[in-house]
Amino acid sequence: MSIEVGNKLQGKVTGITNFGAFVELEGGKTGLVHISEVADNYVKDINDILTVGDEVTVKVMNVSDDGKIGLSIRKAVDRPERPERNYDKKPKFNKKPARTAKPAENFEDIMAQFLKDSEDRLSTIKRQTESKRGGRGARRG
Q: Is the full-model pTM beyond 0.90?
């Protein structure tokens, strides 16, 4: 079997570095499995997963012009494909019903409610700022 992109091959780990593992393939050619292509989960130390002399199945990811071969162990494992998602359907959201406010009868009622709310807010702010300043009548002179 030739070394072409997409082929799955058997190989033997010949060397381990901090960035990946070198795998000897058929015909004496050597390729590199980058540390990110060793397992599906995060690999901090490749020595926890591979050792020199291990027989592994790899998938050829790329072959560069200068002869470097990029390999992957995690993509060589056959997994069932995920079912396709149907993007034609709109997602369903649980919307809360809008608050229904009782409409005011006229402008004077609306203005009276606004003034009451405004006074309440101003008095709350005034109380909070005075307590931070030391209260009333405590001026130094």
A: no
Which of 33, 34, 32, 25 lies closest to 3 in space, CA to CA?
Answer: 25
- Domain spans of the chain? 8-76, 104-133
What is the spatial distance between Cα 103 and Cα 96, in angstroms, rounded to a whole number? 20
- Structural contact between residues 72 and 56, judged by C-beta atoms closer than 8 angstroms: no
CA 24, CA 12: separation in Å to the nearest integer? 5
Judge contact between 68 and 32, C-beta under 8 A: yes
Q: Does domain 8-76 have CATH number 2.40.50.140?
A: yes
pLDDT (tens digit per residue) in 63-93? 988 889 999 999 888 776 666 666 666 666 6
134's tokens? 């030391």
Burial tier of 56 (Cβ tally within 10 Å: 0-12, 13-18, 19+)? middle
Bridging pattern class, strands 30-34 and 20-24: antiparallel
Using the Cα atoms of residue 48, residue 51, residue 57 and residue 60 in order, give the sign of their dihedral: positive
Paired residues of 57 in beta bridges: 10
